[in-house]
Specification:
single chain, alpha/beta, Rossmann fold, 2 domains, six-stranded mixed beta sheet, five-stranded mixed beta sheet, 11 strands, binds adenosine-5'-triphosphate, transport, transmembrane, cell membrane, membrane
Length: 551
């Protein structure tokens, strides 16, 4: 539904859809719309220009051009739908099977695909015509084969990625048969790009039909086809210059319409050209905050989503320079929303409705976006739970590390690479120089998290917000990453806001801690005090539930 509404917001796509609808109406209602019989010859009225009797003129046999153009839509649409329909029927199931089963099936099929793909579509159409004879159906068969091969390749590529996803494993565990998984589970997930590609192929098919008819290999001589009209106009264009104009325009506009619809569908599905949301955050009610020596001072921070309950309410805490401050609480208690609010990264329509967030004495709430963006990196760094999803899979680690170094420190590429290698060594990645050329998937979870930490350090932030940085890692690696954070605090005097639901982690690394529940801080204290004498019953219950992890 989101895709349809985005599509309806694209004027160019709407115009193209209306144009195609017009073609379909013209094809279906041709006998009623066409003013003349498209094959009625009138030798006394040959090669006439546009007139009241013949709006688009007549051809070399005196046939009405408008009527032939209207009847031509039937062939244009039939050729396109036939070629793409057959390609979908052949290519998509083959791609699903080959991608899903993989192995030698895949290897053999892909070699065949490579070989057939190297043949130009037009050449293959000539081959099919030579074997099976002239005619629109035979001509479009060769084109269908090429489209089918391309759709097979596209489907197979997407299935290779999809089959590794948890929902496919879940379907296997449920005992669904392979065809049901392929057609019932995977196909709906890969349908979007296939629809987009097909609409683009509809345009290509139309072009091929016109080319083959132009070469005299498509429709029968008497039939009205735009390509054939263009072909016949060549010999008489000297006598009647209007002849090629209308069939040429019809071909051009139809191909353009199919392609623009394909583009529009792609944008609607990816949201790329969707208009920016009109939503504007409400103004923040700044709470006056007294001067403090803390590096970060948060007062009465309140975050709300329109129509939903307030997710963070009246949260206040201070973090001193060099301190590790823990924010702990059960899932959904508002820890992440607090952190995102501090960095100005709340997902719309969430917004800070009131409060004060001062970093080194400077109020951050209400700062314009570009000023906040300039603070992220050198002032506030963030690391998240899943290191792999925080790194771009297609870029090397080196490239991802030098970007912040070049942006914030203005280093040359060579100097940035040297510094990136130093940072990787600092966070404990062995053989750092060589590993700069590796991609994220070549790193284990713990090593990838070290890379993410190194990237956050690259800009030298004063405050590092670490949101569940060890939750996705196994216990041994968790300890190593926490030790690394502590080591960095020691060396650089870095201030850390550590978000976690694990009281064991809090006990190990934090100086002070705040306990959150349902969007509010219910208690905050130095770590030792909180564990020995919790004041709030919720803290006591959390400690009891954690089974003495802190002991
Ligand atoms: N887009 C949203 N719209 C409305 N409410 C949201 C949205 N995103 C999050 N919330 C709500 O905000 C509350 C706080 O979420 P938050 O992610 O901060 O919790 P958390 O304590 O970090 O939990 P977890 O440890 O599971 O990440 C939750 O009740 C959540 O349902």
């Amino acid at each position: 539904m989101i895709t349809v509404s985005r599509l309806l917001r694209q004027p160019a796509t709407l115009v193209c859809l209306a144009f195609l609808l017009l073609l379909v109406v013209a094809a279906v209602a041709a006998p009623w719309l066409a003013p003349y019989d498209p094959s009625a010859v009138n030798v006394t009225g040959r090669l006439e220009g546009p007139s009241a009797a013949h709006w688009l003129g007549t051809d070399e046999l005196g046939r009405d051009q408008l009527s032939r153009l209207i009847y031509g839509t039937r062939i244009a649409l039939r050729a396109s739908v036939q070629a793409v329909g057959l390609a979908l029927v052949l290519g998509v199931p083959a791609g699903l099977v080959i991608g899903y089963f993989g192995g030698w099936w895949d290897r053999v099929a892909m070699r065949v695909v490579d070989a057939v793909s190297s043949i130009p579509a037009l050449l293959l159409a000539f081959g099919v015509i030579a074997l099976l004879g002239r005619g629109l159906t035979n001509a479009m068969l060769g084109v269908s084969v090429i489209f089918a091969i391309q759709l097979l390749r596209l489907t197979r590529g997407m299935v290779l990625a999809e089959r590794e996803l948890p929902y496919v494993d879940a379907a296997r565990v449920l005992g669904l048969s392979a065809p049901r998984i392929m057609f019932g589970q995977i196909l709906p997930n890969v349908a979007g790009p296939l629809i987009v590609q097909s609409s683009i192929y509809l345009g290509f098919a139309q072009l091929f039909e016109a080319m083959l008819s132009f070469l005299g290999l498509g429709v029968d001589v008497g039939d009205a086809s735009w390509g054939q009209m263009l072909d016949r106009s060549r010999a008489y264009v000297g006598d009647q210059p209007w002849l090629p104009v209308f069939p040429g325009l019809a071909i051009m506009l139809t191909v353009l319409a199919f392609n623009l619809i394909g583009d529009g569908l792609r944008d609607a599905m990816s949201g790329a050209r969707a208009p920016a949301p009109t939503w504007k955050p409400p103004p923040v009610r700044l709470v006056p905050a007294e001067p403090t020596r803390a590096l970060l001072s948060v007062r009465s921070l309140t975050v709300a989503f329109p129509g939903a309950a307030t997710v963070v309410e009246d949260v206040s805490f201070d973090i001193a320079e060099g301190e590790v401050f823990g924010l702990v609480g059960e899932s959904g208690s508002g820890k992440t929303m607090t952190a995102l609010a501090l960095a100005g990264l709340l997902p719309p329509p969430g917004a800070v409705t009131q409060g004060s967030v001062r970093l080194a004495g400077r109020e951050l709430l209400g700062l314009p976006d570009h000023e906040l963006a300039a603070l992220r990196g050198p002032e506030i760094g963030m690391i998240f739970q899943d290191p792999q999803s925080a790194l771009s899979p297609v870029h090397t680690i080196g490239r991802q590390l030098i970007e912040p170094l070049r942006t914030h420190e203005g280093l040359s590429r060579r100097a940035a690479l040297d510094r990136a290698a130093e940072l990787l060594t600092l966070v404990g990645v062995p053989d750092a120089r060589r590993r700069l050329g590796d991609h994220p998937h070549q790193f284990s979870g713990g090593m990838a998290q070290r890379v993410v930490i190194a990237r956050a350090l690259a800009a030298g932030p004063r405050l590092l917000i670490a949101d569940e940085p060890t939750t996705a890692l196994d216990v041994t690696v968790q300890c190593q990453v926490l030790d690394l954070l502590l080591d960095l605090r020691e060396r650089f005097g870095m201030t850390i806001l550590l978000i976690t639901h694990d009281l064991g982690v809090v006990a190990d690394v934090c100086d002070r801690v705040a306990v959150m529940r349902a969007g509010r801080i219910v208690e905050q204290a130095p770590v030792g005090g909180l564990f020995t004498t919790p004041e709030h019953p919720y803290t006591a219950a959390l400690l009891a539930a954690s089974g003495g992890a802190h002991a």
